[in-house]
Predict the structure of Nicotinamidase.
Amino acid sequence: WLVLTALSATSIAALAPTALWNAPIEPDDASALLVIDVQNDFLPGGSLAVNDGDQVVPVINRIAESFANVVLTQDWHTPGHISFATSHSGRKPFETIDLPYGRQVLWPEHCVQGTESASLSKDLSIPHAGLVIRKGFHKGIDSYSAFTEADGKTTTGLAAYLKAREVKRVFLAGLATDFCVAWSALDARKAGFETYVIEDACRGIDTQGSLAQAWADMTKAGVKRIQSGDIAG
Ligand code: VGL
Ligand code: ZN
């Protein structure tokens, strides 16, 4: 065991190329952390509270210190937004309807522009974040994705912003894994970014099998599933 203890983690990895140990990921200037929708309505006590949603906050605060580029997103709906069940007579939250742009899950009213419920968590501590991008602000179009609205064509400008800043790799954290995180990750791939979802820095809603479906879709699209511990501190 003396010999074994003398071996560094690096040399053990060299002896075992089948990955007993992966080198930590070092975020560089071409890397950006996208912190998705860490807003009061998605946290305990909010109208669309994600189970254990608050547990992502300390994890995100810690990993954000490793990133020079951080973008925060905010779900930002009009009153009477098309994604609200209350905007469709006889409909209840978590039912789905078909809209001109595709299938839409109906939600409790949430993240209405300018309300305290739409504010970012006061416990989020990322003073160096360079951009807060709002989405879902057109009354008749939802936008889970931070890149492209649900009509599949209206851009938020985020891809152009990241490309202008020479970002090549995006890392996603936040809420909810199976909606805004997953749709943003899939669009990040479509826009040509190397894409990582930090699983333990996210929590899901999981309605009608949505969480398993989201991971299947992300894996198929080449999104890498990692843990916060995989990122160098
Ligand atoms: C979200 C449902 C409705 C999200 C936003 O942030 O994942 N989910 N609006
Ligand atoms: Zn929303």
